[in-house]
Design brief:
Keywords: Transit peptide
Oligomer: single chain
Shape: globular
Distance between the termini: 54 Å
CATH superfamily of the largest domain: Probable tRNA modification gtpase trme, domain 1
InterPro entries: CAF17_C, GCVT_N, TrmE/GcvT-like, YgfZ/GCV_T_CS, YgfZ/GcvT
CATH architecture of the largest domain: 2-Layer Sandwich
Radius of gyration: 21 Å
Protein name: Glycine cleavage system protein T
CATH class of the largest domain: Alpha Beta
Largest sheet: 6 strands, mixed
Helix content: 10-25%
Strand content: 25-35%
Organism: Nocardia ninae NBRC 108245
Pfam family, one: GCV_T
Strand order of the largest sheet: 10-11-12-9-3-13
Number of domains: 2
CATH topology of the largest domain: Gyrase A, domain 2
Length: 368
């Protein structure tokens, strides 16, 4: 799917994302990419994410129906609550990652622009006799980041800030949702698409500084939050990408819910096995002549041990990347990403050395 260029690209200084990239339709930066990251961390910054695909689900059974075909526990989601969720294939591999919000008798879903139409088609095919009506929406997404975001939000008459994964209506239509990433102060505004330019102006006049997707992506990578299609491949299962957990754990896969497509793999890995790879943060050699690219092999001693995901320059950390690396690779292993030297950030390595409940039960049955 080709996403139409955002009208915000007409803003002075806006530089579009690279042609053919997932962010080609929006601004990559506005002339000061590292300064824009600082604004998002220290002050308040607004990011145009209008290339997200937004759809709605209405009908009395919208939540209970969606609960049965996705990985998160959402059957009893109350008004104003949000969650992250996954669509898996029969083998438990991740097809779609999306954020959903239940508000005013409607489930609002936003996902990657190039994957949205396929997700909508899948949902429509799965309705059968349920009272659930998926449809494309004429809404879009802006993100507001930074510790001074509250001051910007107050200018629009929002009485109190929502908690994490909570949403409140905006006085002029749409809603404000708080997210746990890419920073500690992250908010999404879902607004009518035909009012995108108006909202951009209102937010910047209220004190938010323009920031491109470069800033958003750098902070996301530093927070070790994956983006589907960049930090995942056709083999990725939820455990590898840190999506395990309910809403309270900021995850997208609840481990104690009923049957859904791909659940067998999720349960088997959780109870009996270990994921073959895990998502880690890499530091890249900034002195290299060339930067590696998403999808490049990661090697150790000439042997392929992983796949490179998002590659980005961070205002404090320098060149960094996310990568799916074999779980057995020690954190201090000297790596090469493409042709560039790389090192794993030790603090980013997940701890999965505890024995699983299913494995312990099998051992007891065998008298071990």
């Amino acid at each position: 799917m080709v996403v139409a260029p955002s009208p915000i690209l007409a803003v002075s200084g806006a530089v579009a994302g690279a042609p053919g990239s997932p962010d080609a339709a929006v601004a990559w930066h506005y002339g000061d990419p590292l300064g824009e990251q600082r604004a998002a961390i220290q002050r308040a910054a607004v990011v145009d994410r209008s290339h997200r695909f937004v759809l709605t689900i209405t009908g009395a059974e919208r939540l209970t129906w969606l609960h049965t075909i996705s990985s998160q526990h959402i059957a009893a989601l109350s008004d104003g609550q949000s969650a992250e969720n996954l669509d898996l294939d029969l083998n438990g591999r991740v097809l779609n990652h999306f954020v959903l919000t239940e508000l005013d008798d409607t489930v609002w879903i936003d996902t990657e622009g190039d994957r949205g139409p396929a997700l909508l088609e899948f949902l429509r095919k799965m309705v059968f006799w349920a009272d659930a009506k998926p449809a494309e929406s004429e809404y879009t997404v802006l993100s507001l980041l930074g510790p001074k975001a509250a001051e910007v939000i107050a200018a629009f008459g929002v009485a109190s800030l929502p908690g994490t994964y909570e949403a409140v209506p905006l006085p002029d239509g749409g809603f404000l949702r708080r997210m746990p990433w890419p920073t500690a102060d992250s908010f999404d505004l879902l607004i009518p698409r035909d009012r995108l330019a108006e909202w951009w102006t209102r937010l910047t006049e209220a004190g938010a500084e323009p920031a491109g997707m470069w800033a958003f992506e750098a902070l996301r990578v530093a927070a070790v939050r994956p983006r589907i299609g960049l930090d995942t491949d056709e083999r990725t299962i939820p455990h590898e990408a840190r999506w395990i957990g309910g809403v309270a754990e900021y995850g997208a896969v609840h481990l104690e819910k009923g049957c859904y497509r791909g659940q067998e793999t999720v349960a088997r890995v959780h109870n009996l096995g270990k994921p073959p790879r895990h998502l880690v943060l890499l530091h890249l050699d900034g002195s290299a002549d060339e930067r590696p690219a998403t999808g490049d092999d990661i090697t150790a001693g000439g042997r392929t041990v992983g796949r490179l995901g998002t590659v980005i320059d961070h205002f404090e950390l320098g060149p960094i990347a996310l990568a799916l690396v074999k779980r057995t690779v020690p954190a201090d292993t000297a790596l090469t990403a493409g042709t560039t030297a790389a090192a794993i950030e030790p603090d980013s390595v997940p701890r999965d050395d505890e024995p699983q409940a299913g494995r312990l039960a099998v051992d007891r049955l065998r008298g071990r």
